[in-house]
Amino acid sequence: MTPIFFLFAFLLCTINSHVVARDFCVADLKGGVTSVGYPCKSPTNVTIDDFVFSNFKVGTSNQFNFSGAYAIVDNFPALNGLGFSIARAELEEGATIPLHAHVDADEVVIAGPGNYTTGFISSDNVVYIKTLTEGNIFVIPKGLLHFGFNAGKGKISTLYVLSSEKPSTQIVDLALFGSKLDSSIIQKTTFLDDAQIKKLKALFKGSG
Ligand SMILES: *[C@@H]1O[C@H](CO)[C@@H](O)[C@H](O)[C@H]1NC(C)=O
Ligand SMILES: *[C@@H]1O[C@H](CO)[C@@H](O)[C@H](O)[C@H]1NC(C)=O
Ligand SMILES: *[C@@H]1O[C@H](CO)[C@@H](O)[C@H](O)[C@H]1NC(C)=O
Questions:
Q1: Residue 46 Cα, ligand 1 centroid: separation in angstroms?
Q2: Which of 7, 69, 154, 164 has CB atoms 3.0–4.6 Å from 105's, for a disulfide?
Q3: Which residues line ligand 1 (CB under 6 A)?
Q4: Which of 65, 71, 152 is nearest to 112 (CA)?
Q5: Where does oxalate bind (predicted)?
Q6: How far is the CA of 45 from the centre of ligand 1 (A)?
Q7: Which domains are assigned to the chain?
Q8: Which atom of ligand 1 is nearest to the CA of 44?
């Protein structure tokens, strides 16, 4: 009696889970984002193309002299609900990814050929820094300030996986010198001198 009951219960669960299973929730971007993400596109309207991102190509260099490609839920709806996104950067010789933090995402760095120096600063101000090369993977814990730069000859390419489908990114230089924060307040709060602040505001297009 008992084994038959369990078998029956098992079958019921299996059938039931088959009925309620949802394998994916491709974002319906037209549905509008809410605090829990995008609504799911109707499965009957999902096609193979929803799972392929075709624009993972870097554009022209930005003001930091690196170029990036970003696959996040807003441009790759298949990532909806999966909790990760992917980025790629190409750094010319000498180029830098400036000090920044993702408060909502841990980061995995996958190094390519060449020498990529990267590091983070823990909340107790210990510096963890390493020059990576092909075959190296590095982890940057959520929320910590970090950076990277091309430490070798020629152009390099790096890959990143972040544990959020739409990670936030706060870049220190832009927060300070690309914003409207008044120069006198920047001076007061960072102890930098006015000439340096004005120079960086001109570079990063800040006002105030
Ligand atoms: C599927 O897509 C078509 C065309 O965009 C749309 O008219 C239709 O409402 C969609 N079906 C569902 C079930 O969302
Ligand atoms: C980017 O490169 C240009 C030309 O080499 C240089 O003038 C500029 O200062 C660089 N920007 C940064 C943020 O290093
Ligand atoms: C990377 O660093 C190693 C060790 O210093 C050096 O031998 C190599 O030439 C460097 N590679 C590039 C592309 O700069």
A1: 10
A2: 164
A3: 42, 44-45
A4: 152
A5: 102, 107
A6: 6
A7: 56-168 (2.60.120.10), 170-208 (no CATH)
A8: 13
